[in-house]
Amino acid sequence: MKVAMLGSRLGRMAFRSFSSKPKCVMLNAARLDFDGRMDWSKVTNVTEFTSYDISSTEEIVPRAQGMDIVMNKEFPIPGDIIRALPPSVKLIAEAGTGYNNIDLEACREKGIAICNVPEYTTEAMGDYAITLVMALSCSLAPQMKALAKGDRTYMHQCHLGHLDHFEIRGKTYGIIGGLGYIASNISKKALGLGMKVIVSDMPSTPLGMRDTGVEVVSFDDLLQQSDFISPMVPLNKHTVGLLNAECFDKMKPTAYVINTARGPIVDQAALIDALRKKKIAGAALDVFGEGSAPPPPLPDDSPLYDVFNEFENVILTPHIGWQRVEARQRVVDGCGDNIAKFTRGEAMNIDMNTGLPIR
């Protein structure tokens, strides 16, 4: 894992040496260890560890009393809570890649360092994106939904009727936002399957070209050329509603949108309208909601839930792309490594001045 000194007054304030193991509290262990398969030894070896399966917002401050480190998985820690944390807390260890759930400005004010684990889910998310491509290309979900409804028409007729069924070799996969860890993994797998991969850089997301065989195009060209489109950008003020009605108007009617990043990156109302008007062929969504973490589900009255009728061409999953057992163990181990570095006075991998990972 790459680390770098923060170099600011905050950096000097945040680092401290420990004559004994620092005390660490995990606020929501069940978010990671819901099946009891995680090995926490990399954390317990370097801390006096207290763990709670779940915590409410009101319980954060009481449970942080006397602690040096607060560890959490996507749990929202707003500014008022951070400002109320005891002065003993010097590190928030985020057990994940995203950290928009933590108020960075409040951490700066309080002199609290933050670390994340940027690469833990790369393989799992790459696998999942390609899984969704394959499922969409052979209408897997609509066929299963038909059987679940008791409709055996296609079983009896031995053909797919109106459903799409095509090879992915030669199809174009468009990745919005450059080639970060996950996007780079997706592109390698797509290229290995004979797909063409194109990438559009966004102004707020520097392009990191580490792959060969990938073509850089304009944002509009990507929308117009792609058969599958994945936004792979962080959630911030520049990317909320990035895929909007204007974007859907530019896509091919045979295109599919795959969102495994953050829900608000795709304008949900515009997506529903595009699906209803058949401006695009379908979608696969693993994230929804307003961008909090963990992301909330769709509203109870969302028409997208009608996947058995109106939206049979839509795949919905409850933010499961990252949850493979190997990825979860990797993030636990990564937190342990981060904490060990912190206790030695080494810097973490979040630049508190910019709020960006140091890579």
From TrEMBL:
It holds the Pfam family 2-Hacid_dh. InterPro entries: D-iso_2-hydroxyacid_DH_PdxB (IPR050418), D-isomer_2_OHA_DH_cat_dom (IPR006139), D-isomer_DH_CS (IPR029753), D-isomer_DH_NAD-bd (IPR006140), NAD(P)-bd_dom_sf (IPR036291). The keyword Oxidoreductase applies. It comes from the Eukaryota. GO terms for molecular function: NAD binding; oxidoreductase activity, acting on the CH-OH group of donors, NAD or NADP as acceptor. SUPFAM superfamilies: Formate/glycerate dehydrogenase catalytic domain-like, NAD(P)-binding Rossmann-fold domains. Keywords: NAD, Oxidoreductase. Residues 159-321 form the D-isomer specific 2-hydroxyacid dehydrogenase NAD-binding domain. The keyword Mitochondrion does not apply. Residues 46-349 form the D-isomer specific 2-hydroxyacid dehydrogenase catalytic domain. Belongs to the D-isomer specific 2-hydroxyacid dehydrogenase family. PANTHER family: D-ISOMER SPECIFIC 2-HYDROXYACID DEHYDROGENASE CATALYTIC DOMAIN-CONTAINING PROTEIN-RELATED, D-ISOMER SPECIFIC 2-HYDROXYACID DEHYDROGENASE FAMILY PROTEIN (AFU_ORTHOLOGUE AFUA_1G13630). This is Glycerate dehydrogenase. It comes from Cladocopium goreaui.
